[in-house]
Design a protein that fits this description.
- The chain is an alpha/beta fold.
- It has three domains: 6-274, 3-Layer(aba) Sandwich (Rossmann fold), CATH 3.40.50; 294-434, Isoleucyl-tRNA Synthetase, Domain 1, CATH 1.10.730; 446-497, no CATH class.
- It has 16 helices and 15 strands.
- The protein binds one RNA strand through α1, α6, β9, α8 and β12.
Length: 498
RNA sequence: GGUCGGAUGGCCGAGUGGCUAGGCACAGCUCUGCAAAAGCUGCUACAGCGGUUCGAAUCCGCUUUCGACCUCCA
């Protein structure tokens, strides 16, 4: 397959050309949400980023199997303390059935994903639906001698593993350092070593979510679900594993350890990690209690929000920054993205309708060359570790050419017909198909279209009579409702709706 | 405390040795009955101090400072 897609591999800490295991096919696994609460702005980043990854993989010719899990059970709250199932704890507080709670937030999550225009993963496995696979994998690890059972719980023997394998390579840490970090570990000294992590936890009597296992009733540890499900659907070794940087340790490091023992080799060829979204310089997250939920974001109901933000504005805002940089939230930044996204999309709409005289030779070869260069760079920038920021920058370079063709500042025959078609095609492919942008304004019903047309007609008549009071009244009142009329140069009137 | 990563113009953000993105904001102009939109023009920054180099935002060192991870976390 001919392509030049390079991605930064967190494991090797360098950009590498992407080569899939099976030619023509690409497997992508991304850590999905824990559905014990509503997703927030921070969660939007990986799902939008990896949506673009899988869109781009498809674009360059791969058949992609995109797997994103739903964590709907079983995580212990804090190591060294009493094991509490997050989902069941919250469920008690809200007096809901765990399943009801999980369902509610799963639905909300899906709704948010659709609003972001993220394509559905091919498979979206749940942790609770794969208990059997997880238990089986744990049994294998025990058989191989790298896990031990204590009092109904099973732990992975990190010390033994680290003696033979590069434990800590992904997250860049040394086991010895880990052992030195002192924490209160009293109470639960079941583990042989502090660095050991749970594969299976015994469920205390009050636990609602529990499953039978060879070690008694309990629930799976956090890390095992991703290993069990990724190997089931993508194979023991697969191409790309994605997720937030905060998951590198311990989650992804543990995944590597588990799978390496269970399957005899490392599970992932390319690790990709997106950086965090911050607010006031701090990571947005549960721990700081500084998160803005997606619903709040879309409705403008969080105290820090000056307004509601369209999901696609958020998408654009995220894609304007490289995925490995931190992205700081601010109203100013979102508002800038809103204007920018609107302007770009309008240029695209114009481009679609633009007519070209069909000349095979460009009248302005310099401009023609420049346009071709900008278009060619779309692919180069994407190939360079998904630099969506630069792709968008080039689109803004092209926007004045497009708008100028409409406004008369650029003669349509300045570029050749071939270049013009390429331009149309490139915007469609990159803006719509790969970046996944759409029109920001809602589709208006035909009836409302007619109402607006009528008002525009009345206003045009008033203008002809030089009755500017009436024409301005119509325009200004509509503007108050968020409908902006524009008198075009050719005498027609267009409008945009906020 | 340990490990790692940042610090770019009014704001957001690309960019790893010379050609110094882009967006938003702001100012002027063109167009226009007036607006809006659009176009053109202007606004030239790289935390500080040293060093390497013909040349550094970009490489090295130190300082200041912010953050991430080390515990659930996208």
């Amino acid at each position: 397959m001919e392509h030049n897609f390079h991605i930064y591999n967190s494991y090797t800490r360098q950009k590498e050309k992407f080569v899939s295991i099976v030619p023509g096919y690409a497997g992508l696994y991304v850590c999905g949400p824990t559905v014990s609460g509503e997703s927030h702005l921070g969660h939007a980043r990986p799902y939008i980023t990896f949506d673009v990854v899988q869109r781009y993989l498809k674009h360059i010719g791969y058949r992609v199997r995109y797997v994103r899990n739903i964590t709907d059970a079983g995580h212990f709250e804090e190591e060294g303390r009493e094991a509490i199932d997050k989902v069941s704890e919250k469920a008690k507080l809200e007096k809901l059935e765990p399943m009801e709670l999980v369902h509610k937030y799963t639905n909300l999550f899906h709704h948010g994903m659709r609003l972001f225009n993220n394509e559905d993963p091919a498979i979206e496995p749940t942790a609770t639906g794969h208990i059997v696979e997880q238990i089986s994998m744990i049994e294998t690890i025990i058989e191989k001698g790298y896990a031990y059972e204590v009092n109904g719980s099973v732990y992975f023997d990190v010390t033994k593993y680290a003696a033979e394998y590069p434990y800590g390579k992904l997250s860049g840490r040394v086991l010895e350092d880990q052992l030195e970090t002192t924490r209160d570990l009293d109470g639960q000294d079941e583990k042989r070593n502090k660095a050991d992590f749970a594969l299976w936890k015994k469920a205390p009597p009050e636990h609602i979510m529990r499953w039978k296992s060879p070690w008694g009733e309990g629930f799976p540890g956090w890390h095992i679900e991703c290993s069990a499900m990724s190997s089931k659907y993508l194979g023991e070794v697969f191409d790309i594993h994605g997720g937030g940087m905060d998951l590198q340790f311990p989650h992804h490091e543990s995944e590597i350890a588990q799978s390496t023992i269970a399957h005899g080799h490392a599970p992932v060829n390319y690790w990709m990690h997106n950086n965090m979204i911050t607010i006031n310089g701090k990571k947005m997250g549960k721990s700081y209690n500084n998160f803005i939920t997606l619903t709040q974001l879309f409705t403008g109901t969080h105290p820090v929000l000056e307004q509601a933000y369209h999901p696609l504005v958020v998408r654009f805002y995220i894609l304007q920054t490289h995925y490995r940089s931190t992205l700081d939230f601010s109203n100013e930044a979102l508002q800038a993205s809103e204007k920018a996204a609107r302007r770009l999309w309008e240029a695209y709409e114009i481009l679609k309708k633009l007519a070209h005289p069909g000349n095979t030779e460009a009248k302005d070869t310099k401009l023609d060359d420049q346009v071709n260069t900008w278009i060619k760079e779309f692919a180069e920038f994407m190939d360079d570790d998904l630099n969506t920021a630069k792709v968008i920058a080039n689109m803004f370079e092209l926007a004045p050419v497009i708008n100028g063709m409409k406004g008369g500042q650029v003669k349509p025959d300045a570029i050749s017909f071939a270049t013009f078609k390429k331009l149309q095609d490139a915007f469609k492919v990159y803006l719509e198909d790969i970046l996944g942008m759409q029109a920001l304004q809602a589709q208006q019903s035909n009836k409302m279209d007619h109402v607006l047309s009528l008002l525009i007609e009345i206003r045009s008549d008033a203008k002809k009579r030089k009755d500017f009071a009436t024409s301005d009244q119509i325009r200004n009142r509509l503007a108050e409702f968020g409908v902006q009329l524009k008198d075009e140069k050719d005498g027609t009137v267009s409008y945009s709706i906020e």
